[in-house]
Specification:
The chain has a domain at 29-80. The protein is built from 3 helices and no strands. The chain has helices at residues 13-23, 40-53, 77-80. Helix content is 36%, strand content 0%.
Length: 81
């Protein structure tokens, strides 16, 4: 199943996106994948490998849609531009 969150700016979509990522077992793009702009598949493989070792307590905090940390959810704005 693919979920698209579409809403006007400043309406809570970043919070909802973070909430879905942290509470459901989903595959989502992270800040780590920004380093693999040419091959996202390889990035997802490395992410799954490292994610199991460095899994930390997650925070629902973002500033204007940007989150801190390698494995935090990313809105992937550069990809959609």
């Amino acid at each position: 199943m693919i979920i698209f969150l579409v809403a006007p700016p400043r309406s809570g979509t970043s919070f909802l996106y973070n909430l879905l990522c942290y509470n459901l077992d989903l595959i989502y793009p992270t800040n780590f994948l920004k380093f693999f702009k040419n091959n996202y598949y390889i990035g997802f493989l490395f992410q799954n490998l490292f994610f199991t070792f460095f899994k930390k307590k997650k925070k629902l905090k973002s500033r204007y849609g940007f989150t801190k940390g390698f494995f935090s959810p990313s809105e992937f704005g550069f990809f959609f531009r």
